[in-house]
Amino acid sequence: MFVDNVKIYIKAGDGGNGAIAFHREKYVSHGGPSGGDGGHGGNIVFRVDKGTNTLLAFRYKHKFIAANGGNGKSEKFHGATADDLIISVPEGTLIKDAVTGKIIHDMTENGGADYVCCKGGRGGWGNRHFATPTRQIPMFAKNGTKGEEKEVILELKMLADVGLIGYPSVGKSSILSCISAAKPKIADYHFTTLSPNLGVVSTGAESGFVAADIPGLIEGASEGLGLGHAFLRHVDRCRLLLHVVDISCFEGRDPVEDIKLINTELEKYSPALALRPQIIVANKCDALDRDHVDIPAFEAYVKELDCELIYVSAATGEGLDELVSLCAERLAELPPMLIYESEYTPEDAYAEKGKETTVRRENDTFIVEGEWLYNLMGQINFDDYESMNYFQKVLRNSGVFDLLESKGCTEGHTVSIYDFEFDYVK
Ligand SMILES: Nc1nc2c(ncn2[C@@H]2O[C@H](COP(=O)(O)OP(=O)(O)OP(=O)(O)O)[C@@H](O)[C@H]2O)c(=O)[nH]1
Ligand SMILES: [Mg+2]
Questions:
Q1: Which tens digit of pLDDT belongs to each residue from 370-416?
Q2: Is residue 221 in a domain?
Q3: Cβ(318) to ligand 1 under 6 A?
Q4: Which site in 87, 141, 164, 243 is 20 to 30 Å from 300, CA atoms measured?
Q5: Where do runs of H (alpha helix) occur along 52-193?
């Protein structure tokens, strides 16, 4: 079964808590604070597995939770750092935020390198960190921060240079089977192909390209009528489209009408995809009856489209070598395959949780609280300019400043966020 779109819940492990403990030893009556730190929680890491090309593995498993870090112990023993949870996905998978639909990451980026999608919480410091000359018996330690959690959509967009598109039964699968080693199902009824097929087309000892055959498109496919709509995402990355038509006009179809129809569907699904360069592939030329098909009108229309045209026959092999060479030539001139840019910033993640913020006033001080803020504080280094900038950005984007102002906070008031105090400046 082919699955190319799933929603899953992922959560990184929480950091372990720091320990409150004191050194004990015979004859040492007042041992110093010795509470160890909590271990870090495990990250959620996505990894490309080239051996699979479907998201089927996620059909029945929707929750992925990494282990928590161990708590700190006495005698400076640190809690164990938890292992990362590795989630394997096929090549070409996009990770999207389930709430906003924004792209978080394209697994094609950086040559398919591992991607940490949720960071594990940091282990809290044990009490030994908090001893000062005036506070020799610190009776507190820090709790670990929570691991990040998200609901994400995994969407597979196959990695193919060339996409074969067209009306059902025009011979897309037949062509793919002739030019590559792929063995897709071929039959004389519509919608024989039910899921995309990939084939590697070799153009020399060490060169080649990947072609994808997608299920036949029909009118209304982009509105979800019939097959095809969901599969168009698999040609999203294609650099070149082979628009296949049946030139024998079997079933009385008109190739000009078919091209118009398919292009309308493409346009509706994605205007960007409709602009992708196309080569019109007139297939079944072995069965072409020139008395019944108006070839001059067809060629005039293709010219109007400003597309190249090639006649082939998957049955006899005619024109297929030329088709492969033409594809290779055009691909050499085209830009590299599309890699989606992330539309998601870490600030967005906090912005979504901004609603859980509370502000209360004590004289001239405004106290801001919220679990997400507490976690955020654990990640900010207040001595570092960049880190502080980030902190400010998150406060702004998550609406904390607006909330403060709505509660009457103005210039000169003090704002207190978990031990951190600053004067409010507009
Ligand atoms: N005469 C002739 N028949 C062909 C040629 N290419 C394909 N066919 C026949 O056309 C029918 C449909 O071919 P497919 O390759 O399954 O077509 P498709 O475009 O993949 O169809 P769907 O997957 O249903 O969209 C089959 O019966 C093929 O044998 C050709 O060049 N000449
Ligand atoms: Mg097919």
A1: 878 877 776 676 767 777 787 888 888 888 899 999 999 998 899 98
A2: yes
A3: no
A4: 164
A5: 172-179
DSSP state letter for 170: S
pLDDT in tens, 196-245: 888 899 887 778 899 999 887 776 655 655 555 678 888 889 999 999 99
pTM of the predicted protein model = 0.75
Interatomic CA distance for residues 16 and 80, integer angstroms = 8
Residues 231, 186, single domain; the answer is: yes
Report how far ligand 2's centroid is from the alpha carbon of 331 (Å): 23
Counting Cα atoms < 13 Å in the Cβ hemisphere of 119 gives: 11
The DSSP code for 232 is G
Which tokens go with 181? 């080693």
DSSP 350: H
Question: Using N-to-C axis directions, what is the helix angle for 172-179 and 320-333, rounded to 10°?
Answer: 80
Q: Provide the domain limits for residue 411.
A: 354-423
Q: How far apart are CA 101 and CA 152, in angstroms?
A: 9
Q: How many CB atoms lie within 10 A of CB 336?
A: 8
- What separation in Å is there between the alpha carbon of 252 and the centre of ligand 1? 15
346 belongs to a structural domain: no
| 225 alpha carbon – ligand 1 mean position (Å) | 22
Structure tokens at 236: 């999203």
- Our mutation pick for probing the ligand 1 site, out of 165, 186, 227, counting the most ligand atoms within 8 A of Cβ, is 186
CATH number of the CATH domain containing 240: 3.40.50.300
Q: Is 351 helix (H, G, I), strand (E, B) or coil?
A: helix
